[in-house]
Amino acid sequence: MSDFKRIIAKRKRQDFIFNIVGIMCTLVGIVTLGALLTDLLMDGLTRLNWTFLTSFPSRFAARAGILSSWVGTLLIMLVTALTAVPLGVSAGIYLEEYARKNWVTNLIEINIANLAGVPSIIYGLMALGLLVYQFKLGQSVLTGGLTLAFLILPIVIVATREALRTIPQGIREAAYALGSSKWQVVRHHLLPYSLGGTMTGIIIALSRAIGETAPLITIGALTFIAFLPPLPVTTQPPFLSIEWLWSPFSVLPIQMFNWVSRPDQDFVVNAAGAGLVLIVVTLLLNAIAILIRYRVRKRIKW
Amino acid sequence: MFSAWKTPRWPALFIAISLAMFGVACNSGGTPSGTAPTESAVIKVDGSSTVFPVTEAVAEEFQKEKLGKVNVTVGISGTGGGFKKFVRGEIDVADASRPILTDEMAQAKANGIEFLELPVAFDALTVVVNPQNNWVTSITVSELKKIWEPEAQGKITHWNQVRPEWPNEKIALFGAGADSGTFDYFTEAIVGKAKASRGDYTASEDDNVLVQGIEGNKYALGYIPYAYFAPHSNRMKAVGIEWEKNKVKEPVLPSPENVLAGNYNPLSRPLFIYVSRKSLDKPAVKEFVEFYLKNVKTLATEVKYMPLPDTAYQMAMERVRTLQTGTGFGGVPEVGLPVEEILKRPPKS
Q1: What is the pTM of this model?
Q2: Cβ neighbours of residue A57 under 8 Å, at least 6 residues apart?
Q3: What is the ipTM, given to two decimal places?
Q4: Please, which pLDDT band fits residue A60 given cuts at 50, 70 and 90?
Q5: Chain A residues within 8 A of B21 when measuring between CB atoms
């Protein structure tokens, strides 16, 4: 009997110890994030105002703003999303629903998983050789957007496939039983039901892309740029212009990097301000992901 | 049950939001330079991170004066990276913290790129120690060489190995990373061969990291550009440099006066812009370069760099007027040149 009690006590102790270790591990993450945010807020909050968001970079820390870099970030993300999402989702659907399961598919799958782990600077080097010099796209918004699209493509593909896998096989079979073609199954059932998972994956991938600096520096993103790309709408027909795709650009992380490495310490405050904007945008993206997942899950009743 | 369920038009919504935000940005960006009209000229500058603050200041003022009719972009690819783009004809102006080298000149020639070499400001590499360091006030070039040459790696580790009266404590070394022009220049000037350096020191491309390191260690010694020392002169102590080949025989501290007088050798270095001859035919580029030379004196001082004497800018202006192409350095790195010497040299292509 005492043996029994001893074993129970031992297991309870193990439980307790793991509990403590678990709390510690969680705290490391939370405390780090908290400290980072507090530090950024303390440094950067004073700089955050309308003028900061609507001014171009300057040699005076107090006059410098992030207008050209946040517009650059926004346009880059637009190009990235418009390229990576259709490509990635289509590839994911093909691999999961259409492709025959043989060694070629296996090889492709393994390579996509490996691509997701390739350091971002490698994508930058590839883009420099291929997009900038081979295709002569220049150091433009288009090149930057495509580079980041390549970078997040594997993540989007994997997320799409995971989302498709969570749909019960019965749904597909039921649809086929009613005479649906493969495309109808995908279009009317699989796509809507997997939307939550796919969108979450896409947005997480975009939040990764938004903070990327290395590949954009490699392709030659600029540091000082005090004008905006041409407007996408014009006064003459056809009223739409894609001129902005060829415009030079800078992005928030590059602007931050430049500010922290300057001799004048006043710029560190600006960098903190830009960092806050970047974090807020990332948190917003994540919030959207959570919202979409929540709404989609609520609608699906299996 | 699912029949009413349609995929929401997320992509369309996303585009709409982005365009709307972009529109807002363009309207609110009411600063002088405003938005770029499609046909406005863009002047492309790229290169050294050391020259960047100066060029940025000039570009800012120039755009203000041109009211957005001319746009200037400035990148940081490092001196070498900037020259790579320059000799391919991708940019109009290259920022450089060292003169152009022979192989870069050969590439420029092969691509039919002629260039004008214009000195714009001075930088002084500053050897710094911790403010609590009370034993070092000056150091000779040969002592610096003893510390920094590749053979010193793992051997010269204590202060008293450099000078016997210095303490028997470990030296903590801080210096520029291998990709920077600062590293090239320091090794050339001190060790005698560009890029020849010991490897066992704290290296960083970010000079602020070096500043922090030196500030935090009583036994630290490092080198940084003067622009990084000047705003932190209370956190670090500059060391006087003694050089047997110098005309001044006692140790010289880095200061605008000493650099301008040509006394701070061999660690003061000229900073340049290189302008493509072809680009100068564009009126916007010509105006930008002239604006640069006219205003760099005040602007360089504002960003804590040392301007050249007035005669230097007059000479550079003359070079632009008469379109004198080529370099005064012949593609070989040289150090410790006095200001007058640099200015007197006729450029050769």
Answers
A1: 0.76
A2: A64, A65, A66, A68, A69, A223, A224, A225, A226, A250, A255, B56, B60
A3: 0.74
A4: confident
A5: 74
Query: Is the minimum CB–CB distance between A301 and chain B shorter than 8 Å?
Result: yes
Range in A32-41, B22-31, B245-254 with the lowest mean pLDDT:
B22-31
Spatial distance between the Cα atoms of B83 and B77, rounded to a whole number of angstroms? 9
Exposure letters A115-150 (e unless 16+ CB within 10 A, then b): bbeeebeebbebbbeebbeeeebbbbbbbbbbbbbb
Contact A224 B29 (CB under 8 A): no
Query: Is the model's pLDDT at A196 over the cut of 90?
Result: no
Structural tokens at position A209: 């892309």
Q: Can you read off the two tokens belonging to residue B16? A: 């709409």
- Residue B159 contacts residue B187 (beta carbons within 8 Å): no
| Tokens (6 digits) for A73 | 């970030």
pLDDT at B79 over 90: no
- What distance in Å separates the CA atoms of residue A167 and residue A174, rounded to the nearest whole number? 12
Residue A162 near residue A112 (C-beta atoms within 8 A): no
Residues of B in contact with A190 (CB under 8 A): none
Alpha-carbon distance values, B21 to A53, A148, A209 (Å): 12, 21, 19
CA B131 – CA B214 distance, rounded (Å): 9
Please report the pLDDT score of residue B37 as a whole number.
40
CB B94 within 8 A of CB B274: yes
* Average confidence (pLDDT) over A119-125: 90
Query: Cα A226–A227–A228 angle (5° rounding)?
Result: 135
Question: Is the Cβ of A57 closer than 8 Å to some Cβ of chain B?
Answer: yes
Nearest by CB to A243, from B38, B56, B206: name it. Answer: B38
Rounded to the nearest 10°, the torsion over CA B203, B205, B211, B215 is -20
Q: Tokens in use for B164? A: 């016997």
Q: Is the dihedral of CA A176, A180, A185, A189 positive or negative?
A: negative
Confidence of residue B295 (pLDDT cuts 50, 70, 90): very high
Chain B CB contacts of A233 below 8 Å: 19, 23
Lowest mean pLDDT among A289-298, B72-81, B100-109, B223-232: A289-298
Q: Choosing among B76, B125, B210, which should be mutated to test the A contact, i.e. which has the most A CBs within 10 A?
A: B76
Helical packing angle, B283-302 and B310-322, nearest 10°: 170
Alpha helices by DSSP H, chain B = 10-28, 52-65, 78-87, 102-110, 141-148, 181-190, 207-215, 226-229, 256-260, 283-302, 310-322, 339-344
SS3 of chain A: CHHHHHHHHHHHHHHHHHHHHHHHHHHHHHHHHHHHHHHHHHHHHHHCCHHHHHCCCCCCCCCCCCHHHHHHHHHHHHHHHHHHHHHHHHHHHHHHHHCCCCHHHHHHHHHHHHHCCCCHHHHHHHHHHHHHHHCCCCCCHHHHHHHHHHHHHHHHHHHHHHHHHCCCHHHHHHHHHCCCCHHHHHHHHHHHHHHHHHHHHHHHHHHHHHCCCHHHHHHCCCCEECCECCCCECCCCCCECCHHHHCCCCCHHHHHHHHHCCCCCHHHHHHHHHHHHHHHHHHHHHHHHHHHHHHHHHHCCC
Of A71, A248, A261, the CB nearest to B206: A261
